[in-house]
Structures are given as C-alpha cells and as structure tokens.
Design brief:
disordered N terminus; alpha/beta; 316 residues; D-Maltodextrin-Binding Protein, domain 2; 40% helix
Amino acid sequence: MKIARRDALATISAGVSLAPLALRAQGLTTLRVGGPPAEQALPLFYANRAGLFERAGIKLELSGGASGAATAAAVASGGLDIGLSSMLAIILGHAHNVPLTIVAPSGVFVPETAAGLIVMNDAPLHVAKDFNGKTIAAAAVNDINSLGLWTWMDKNGGDSSTVKVVEIPQGAQPAALEQGRVDGITLSNPAFTVAMATGKMRFIVNIWNSMAPRLLLVCWFSTTGWVERNRSVAERFGQVIAEAAVYCNTHVQETVDDIVTLSHLERSLVLQMKRTLQEPTVKADEIQPMIDAAVKYKLLSRGFPAAELIASTAQT
C-alpha cells in the first residue's frame, strides 16, 4: 500500500528506528545496489555512513562507477537488486516492456539547479536561435540532455531540427568545448561545478526545466519482479532514502565529506557547489512531462501515465 505524502515524513523516523529490533535478530538483508558516482546518490551515501540502512535491517553491497545505461542493464538482468539511473532510461525501458519500476526518487531539477547548457565565454551564443546548426555534446545521443535541449530550443525561438548532438562523456565535455570540437556542452554536478570553476565557460540555461518547473531527473529503481518478491525490503529502502533526502537538503555543511567521497572532487570545489535538491517522495507529475516530451520528439511511439512506473512500495 502506498504511503500518503502528508504521513510519510512523519512516520519514517519511527519506522526505520523501531522495526530493526526484530530484524537484527534475523540478520541483515543484503542489497546489491549500484550506479554512477552522481551527486544524486548523496542520500544513499549519507544513509549508509550514518547507519540508517543497518537500523532498517539492510546491508548494502555497493557497486560504483557504472553508467546509468549499464546500471539499468545490470538491474534488468538480475546482476543488481536496485540501481540509480536517469528517469528517461526507466521511461524508455518501460515503453519497450522492460519491467523496471521506481522504488525511490533522487535528484529533482528546479529552475535554480546548477546544471544545463554551457559555452565558452567568448562564444557568440546567448539565446535559443543562436544554437541553430550548432554541435552540442550530451552524455548520450537521444538522452535526457538531448531531450531538454530540443525542448528549450523549440520553446524559445530556435529550431531543434538543425542542431547536431554528439555523444561525449560528461567528464570529457569541457576539454571538447575548449578545443572547439563542439559549440556547447550539457552538464550536471559534479561535472558542472568543475567546468564552471575554470573561469573559461559561461552558463546559458537549465535546459531541463523547459519541460516543467520541477522534473525528477534521476531515481532508484528495480524490476517489478524483484519488488514483488521483496516488498518489505523495497519499502524499507524507500523509507531510508526519504529520511536521508530530507537530512541532506537541510544539512549541507554536514554532508560535504559525503560529496567529496562520492565525487572525488577537491573539498574547495565541493564547498562552491550548489547542491541538487533531493526529492523524498515520488510524484507522477514530476515525471509525466518527460514522457510527453519523449513522445513529441519520437523517442517513444506512444505515451502512458507516469503512475505506471512507480512501485506500490514507494513513498508517494
């Protein structure tokens, strides 16, 4: 049964703190969890360090370094129980009958989020129409960066059909921009902070918010079969992530070391970083605009209700 949003945060602490008394006697349940070292993984790293998972009867077996696409493949094949990936990967998987489902949310993009389209300081590029015919780097062709770029251009006087998107890993995009191999790059943290710290680059716009004022960009997911077989642990995982997300949003200084460990950035850069807002509950209206945009730009042949993606165990 889904937990109502108004009750979720009030009951999380009690649920996570009291239930493990019986669970510890039975031993901890091991969860194989993986994903790329993105800032959106912060609640999981904090919760693991703070012992919140152990209190909930869970032991994490972490696998890091994989891309979102590789993580999705690992979860789908049973190599991982839960993974972290972009929301678009889950949407596309669902549309192709891959039984992926959201067990907990992660980073949500709002207009103030430090992420988006970047150019060189001296580039004559300022508004959407300036990018007509230009070459822009994205982590993958037809990914969430591409979708955000197309939407922003078409809503603001540009022509997305003229832009060329090329695939370059986020960490390598600043060098490609400096070398003139691309006209613009699309980054999120920590790569965004690294690029802007050079002083050579200029931020244009958070392209993703052209789809909606709030957009769930990343989530923790599993397969529907795994959730059905492990309902209790899936629900407890979601409760811990929700508690940790609230803490991370309100305790920026206390989680600096977690970001350093997660991102491998210098502490001085982490202190400059504008944090991504961590979403404690899953909201269908923060997902639906991405589905609709994917249909518009023919990444999907048809749309569907975002609620179909949300596990019944998720905090909503």
